[in-house]
Amino acid sequence: MRIISNKNIYFSERKERQCPPFSHSEWIKFAIFALIVRPKKKKLQMSKHITEEQRYAISMMLQIPMSKKAIAEAIGVDKSTVYREIKRNCDARSGSYSMELAQRKADRRKQQKHRKEVLT
């Protein structure tokens, strides 16, 4: 039996418990966890790039707001990865994190990485 828990939210495959009414932010938090939470692995995979879906989850969870450690656990990466992602891809002017901007920056870096220098 697998149980997913968050504060007062408890669900199991066999039995569903009655919970008190939730606020809007708690429902958003639950929806994100329900879509993204994966079984915990014994060891995190190394050198895996952040996907577009994970960037979207980071941006939504930061709006709730959630701790960066909880975000890392939810998307299945180390907390340093989340800190680095936010630091490298946030808006320079406002300091806010946007999934669209982060994806554009990551794609641009990926293209520049593969450019070959032509010597004449």
Q: What is the secondary structure topology, with strand pairs?
A:
Layout: E1 4-6, E2 9-11, H1 24-36, H2 52-63, H3 68-75, H4 79-89, H5 99-113
Antiparallel strand pairs: 1-2
Helix pairs in contact: 2-5, 3-4, 4-5
Describe the structure.
The protein is mainly alpha-helical and 120 residues long. The chain has a domain at 52-111. Helices cover 49% and strands 5% of the residues. The protein has helices at 24-36, 52-63, 68-75, 79-89, 99-113; strands at residues 4-6, 9-11. Strands 1-2 form a two-stranded antiparallel ribbon. Strand 1 and strand 2 (9-11) form a beta hairpin. Helix 3 crosses helix 4 (79-89) and helix 4 (79-89) crosses helix 5. The longest helix has 15 residues, at 99-113. The protein is elongated. It starts with a strand and ends in a 7-residue tail after the last helix. The model is unreliable at 1-19 (pLDDT under 50).
Pick out its properties.
120 residues, 2 strands, two-stranded antiparallel sheet, elongated, mainly alpha
What is the gist of this entry?
By secondary structure, the chain is mostly helical. The protein is built from five helices and two strands, in the order ββααααα. A two-stranded antiparallel ribbon has the order 1-2.
* Integer-rounded radius of gyration: 18 Å
- In helices, the fraction of residues equals 40-55%
Mass-distribution shape? elongated
Strand fraction: 5-15%
SS element count, helices: 5
Distance between the termini: 65 Å
Reading side by side through the largest sheet, how are the strands ordered? 1-2
Low-confidence stretches: 1-19
Order of helices and strands: EEHHHHH
Average pLDDT rating: 75
Largest sheet: 2 strands, antiparallel
